[in-house]
Write a structure and sequence with these properties.
3-stranded antiparallel β-sheet; 3 helices; 5-stranded antiparallel β-sheet; alpha+beta; about 130 residues; single chain
């Protein structure tokens, strides 16, 4: 008996390229490919060569480094720590050394990135709360 499987192996790559043009990333959840728009992502958490793409309600693991995922999602993200990048539109409050997001997560700002992070966030008109 001969079975044939019809599967387009390049469909995932084409889908990824089409979606990347619209500031979204393809993540896999329970064996299915999902498209997550950059505006829905609250923050990115890097762990080695993997990145957690965190939305308000879900957390997806992507097999790419934090820098690559941040470049795919566009300029709305500010790198504030070696392991964190935040979406500037999801920031609720900003203090000198950390950021609180609308989802309730507190993200630390690394000492070496304090000035660059505050400059980038000031350009986005997000005023600090605790200066």
């Amino acid at each position: 008996m001969r079975t044939s499987v019809s599967h387009d192996y390049f469909a995932d790559q084409r889908q990824s390229n089409e979606i990347q043009g619209s500031n979204a990333i393809v993540v896999y959840h329970l064996g299915r490919a999902l498209s997550v728009a950059g505006r829905d992502v609250a923050y990115l958490e890097g762990v080695g060569n993997y990145t957690f793409v965190c939305t308000k309600s879900n957390r997806y693991l992507v097999a790419k480094c934090l820098k690559t995922v941040q470049e795919v999602l566009g300029g709305d993200f500010v790198r504030v720590h070696k392991s964190y990048s935040v979406n500037r539109y999801h920031i609720k409050q900003r203090w000198f050394d950390n950021i609180q997001l609308h989802c309730g997560k507190n993200i630390p700002i690394a000492r070496r990135r304090l000035s660059s992070a505050h400059e980038a966030l000031s350009a986005a008109a997000i005023s600090p709360s605790g200066f």
